[in-house]
Specification:
Plasmid pRiA4b ORF-3 family protein; 2 strands; plasmid; 5 helices; mainly alpha; single chain
Length: 130
């Protein structure tokens, strides 16, 4: 069991599944997969954020946007945007969808993480925590 505890304790089960010979010209450690973003509030908060970002309300918002686009397509007119209440409803829906994107955190880029590991940035960060 590995405990990652910079602010909120995270426990990770590390399991060795296979022993391989090191690859030539590969610097270790290296990152192989995905992980939650930094400072997301811990495992429970991360799962809540995912539920909030990808829950049923998102389906409702997408359905509303699709309905709006279909109306514009069917009528070949942007008249629906002239109604201030409907335009505001669309704007609020689009803002909610955009806000959900932030809940998902930054995209994980394995190559960038590995480049930072090769530059020993993880050591600098670890020393700052002591």
């Amino acid at each position: 069991m590995y405990e990652y505890d910079l602010n909120i304790p995270w426990e990770h089960e590390v399991r060795l599944e296979e022993c391989r010979s090191p690859k030539p010209r590969t610097l270790y450690p290296c990152c192989l997969g995905n992980c939650p973003p930094e400072d997301c509030g811990g495992p429970e908060a991360w799962l809540r954020q995912l539920d909030d970002a990808l829950g049923y309300e998102l389906d409702d918002d997408f359905a509303m946007v699709i309905e709006f686009i279909k109306e514009i397509s069917d009528t070949r007119s942007f008249a629906a945007l002239k109604d201030p209440d409907r335009a505001e409803e669309l704007r609020e829906t689009l803002f909610r969808i955009e806000d959900r994107k932030a809940l998902l955190g930054k995209p994980f880029e394995r190559r960038k993480v590995n480049e930072r590991l090769r530059q020993d940035e993880h050591l600098t960060f670890m020393y700052q925590q002591v």
